[in-house]
Amino acid sequence: MSTKTNDPSGTPPTTRAFDLLAGMFAAQVIAAMATAQVFDTIGHGSKTPDEVATACGLDRNTLARALRFLEVVGVVNKDKDAYALTDVGKCFLKDVPGSLHGSVSFISAPPWRDSWNNFSHCLRTGEPAFDHVFKQPFFTYLDRNQEYGKPFNQYMTRMTTMVAPLVADAYDFGQFKTVCDVGGGQGILLKAVLEKHGGCKGILFDMENALKEQVLGGLVDRTELVTGSFFEKVPRADCLLLKTVIHDWNDANSIRILTNCGEALHKGGKVLLVEQVIERPFTMMGLFYDLHMQVMLGGAERTEEEFAQLLAAAGLKLNRIIPTPSPMKLIEAVAAG
Ligand SMILES: C[S@@+](CC[C@H](N)C(=O)[O-])C[C@H]1O[C@@H](n2cnc3c(N)ncnc32)[C@H](O)[C@@H]1O
User: Residue 321 is part of which domain span?
Assistant: First the structure.
């Protein structure tokens, strides 16, 4: 077997190995700078370290060295005395499409940071690190600690905003009278589906705190808001839509949710999962989220075969997989036999 890395740049192995370790420190610098509003202060223009230090109330010397460090990792460029954000750096601005500002805040917040610090617990036990550190499951914690729960729901809405129209366009939801978004968060995906398909009625099903902040706008008139747990029961509908819900859970819990979905499906209805499907060539995003789900919830990203097995164990049959112009795919399932 080859011992060569997949790095095509020809960088010496020790340098590459050091760069991998430095990734953790780069993430910490980026998180601290984003939290201190450095990136939003530079914005789409350019600023000197003095100007940024004054505007953000920071130590000028440390800030200047941190900006110099961010130049070497490709986040900023320097021209004369002023720094500007590169296209990569602009992804950390708050108000740009596809902003990673929310992800940055989570990196440095205790629920995420302290869980990842305990990845070795996952390695030893196969259990989520979150429960080990916080002595309760992730979603229970978010529900009880709204200072994290609220930004999490808002973050999910922002992330789903980008793919919602792509999912609504990729599939003929017009065949259904009722579409239930199971674990639908604040309802941004259901909104896109109802906007495109005037004949559909919606059901938004989630925990109370997510529904309190629903973003359906005028479409709330065509939507029933239902609070509950998908481990107990799921509302009846022609289409049960689950976006990035199954990846949160281990196989046993996923089978429980999918079994409840199968029981709630009207005759001839469909279960639609919106998930990444792990396949070669692997992507950093797919394999990062796979481990992230393990750390936070004991969940996983899955291959097509793994989805087919899960669905079969829940009395469903994987019918087909429909791509979207995004990392997300639609996995269509029907009642088996
Ligand atoms: C990863 S988020 C996905 C949200 C939304 N589908 C999206 O993609 O934007 C998982 C969702 O599952 C919800 N959830 C977690 N446990 C639940 C339960 N037992 N019953 C119903 N919803 C639950 C959370 O509140 C959250 O909104």
Answer: 159-279+296-335
